[in-house]
Amino acid sequence: MNINDLYIYAKVYESKSINKASKELEYAQSNITQRIQLLEEQFNQNFFVRSYTGIKPTKEGSIFYEYSKSVITNTDNLKITFSENKKQILCSELLFNVLYKKQGIYEIAKYTFKLVTSSEMFIEPYNHYYDKVLTFNKLDLNNYTLVRTSSLKVGLYINKEYIANYDNLPLLINSDKKCPLRKLSLDILPDKNFIELDSLEAIINIVQNGEGIAILPPDLTSDSSTNNIKVDYKSIPYYEYAFNKRT
Question: Digits of tens for pLDDT over the chain (247 positions)?
Fold first, then answer.
C-alpha cells in the first residue's frame, strides 16, 4: 500500500463511482479497480458492495475511509511543514538560467526559488523576505547583508553562417526596461535597429536561426552555430544577499 492508493480509495468512496473517480483522477478504470482490490486483499475485507447501479461502501469500507483521510491529511500537513523548512531564494530569471546551467545553482531540491524579471527585482525584496537574493541591482535594505559580488560574462552573438549579413540583422533586446542585457546592448550599439522581446529563450532561438544578433551570456549560447563577434566580452556585476535574521 502506498499513499496514492489512499488518495484513489478516498476519491472512489466520495464519488460512489469508479467511473467518476477515474475521470476526476484521469486514471483508467481498470487501474482504479485493481488498486481497490489490492487494498481489500491486504486488509482481508470487502470495502464496497458492487452492483449494476454503482458501488456502496460496507461498514469496513467507511472505517477504512476515515483511516485514509486521516493519513492523507497528516501527509499533506507534513509536506507543507517540510516545504516551509526549505530556504527561499529570490533570483533574477536571467541569473537563474545562467547559474543553473553553469554550476547547478546549489542543490536545487533543498530550496524554493522565486524567479522574477529585472523590473520585479526592484520591488519584490521590499515586499517579502527571502533567505537569499540573487540580483543585478544593489539592495538598500537593513535586513539583508551582501555576502558575495560576482560578474556575468556576456558577448555579442550571431549565427556564424550569417556574419556577412551582420549589418542587416536587427539587435534583439529584452522588453524589460531594467534588464541589464538591454542596457548594455543599447550602450554598445546605440545606432543599431532593434527588436524588443519579453523572452530570453525567444531571443536565443532567433539568434541561432540567423535572424538577429544579441548580447548574451556564453553559457546560454552553447549551440555550435553561434559565435561571439565584434565586441569583446563584457562583465555585468551581480550580487548575493542573505537575510539578516538578527536585524
Answer: 678 889 899 999 998 888 888 888 888 888 889 889 989 988 899 999 988 777 899 999 999 999 998 888 887 766 665 555 678 889 988 888 877 766 555 555 677 888 888 888 888 888 788 889 999 999 888 889 999 999 988 888 888 888 888 899 999 999 999 999 999 999 999 999 999 998 888 898 898 888 999 998 876 665 555 565 655 678 899 999 998 865 4
Residues 139 and 164 in one domain: no
Tell me which of 65, 85, 105 is where a domain ends.
Answer: 85
| Domain end among 67, 85, 103 | 85
| 68 and 103 share one domain | no
Same domain membership, residue 164 and residue 185: yes
Grid coordinates of 89: 531564494
